Amino acid sequence: MDSPQTTDLGDANGWFYIVLLLLYTMPFWGLLLTWLIGRSVERKHLRELVEREIHSQGRVALTGKHLPGERSVASSELAVGSVVVSVDYFKRWLSSFRMIFGGEMKSYASVVSRGRREALLRMKEACPDADMFINCRIETSTISNGQGKAVGCAEVFAYGTAVKFEQK
Amino acid sequence: MVGLLREDGREGSAFHTIMTITNIETIPGKTIVEHLGLVQGSTIRAKHMGRDFMAGLKNLVGGELKGYTELMMEAREQATQRMVEQAQSMGANAVVNVRFTTTTVTQGASEMLAYGTAVKCE
């Protein structure tokens, strides 16, 4: 009669240890999960970016102040686009190693560059009837550095003058 | 930001009002007849707890923090609107050479400043 009870107890202990092990390895699972989700989010965003960039290819954004060529202008207005991007938990963990040795932080660079492309696209999409964007400026600012409990994120803001040409 | 009308009658944001705003010295397609001087508008915004909490969750997997994006754009629109109101009170109908700056005042609060030159154009 006693033997099944002891095996039951043993099973319960086994579960207890498994749960304990899972709890102690929580940071690892968190890293794995955020790495997987973060990667899929990033890839999806990159696919979207390429699609939208092809769509708005004809309407160029220039950093110069002068309109190239002699074309009469019908109207002009300010175009703005902004995005706040953040780095995932896994990349932040990776970057803590980078802080020791120094060098280029590729994982962060990809996030900021995606933000920049997104901001430029939003600027273009804010003025769907414009033909050209001149004097475009891109500005990146840190909202918070993410130390302690604060959320680490940066804002990318793109603005320029949207110009609409007169129809010939 | 509502209540500002575009030239075509649609209701738009502060960036697309009856007042022409450009970030170059001229207004393409129009001529400037009078310079009225510098106009500016600014606002300091703090993010609120609810947004901060959601952003904290989103921050684990990375990507865009939509709540913060909205917050920053609202703040920038507010600054632009204040600049436009100042220009209107001076009798201007356009603002040229507009610049935007963002400064982090403290952790979690940013100042948005928009400034430019108020002009009269034809």
Automatic annotation (TrEMBL), chain A:
Q: Which UniProt keywords apply?
A: Membrane, Transmembrane, Transmembrane helix
Keyword check for Iron: no
SUPFAM superfamilies on file: YbjQ-like
Q: Which organism is it from?
A: Haloferula rosea
Q: Belongs to which family? A: Belongs to the UPF0145 family.
From the Swiss-Prot or TrEMBL record, give the protein name.
Heavy metal-binding domain-containing protein
The question of whether Transmembrane helix is a record keyword is answered with yes
What PANTHER family does this protein map onto?
Answer: UPF0145 PROTEIN SCO3412, UPF0145 PROTEIN YBJQ
**InterPro entries, alphabetized:** UPF0145_dom_sf, UPF0145_YbjQ-like
Q: Where are the transmembrane segments?
A: 15-37
Superkingdom of this protein's organism = Bacteria
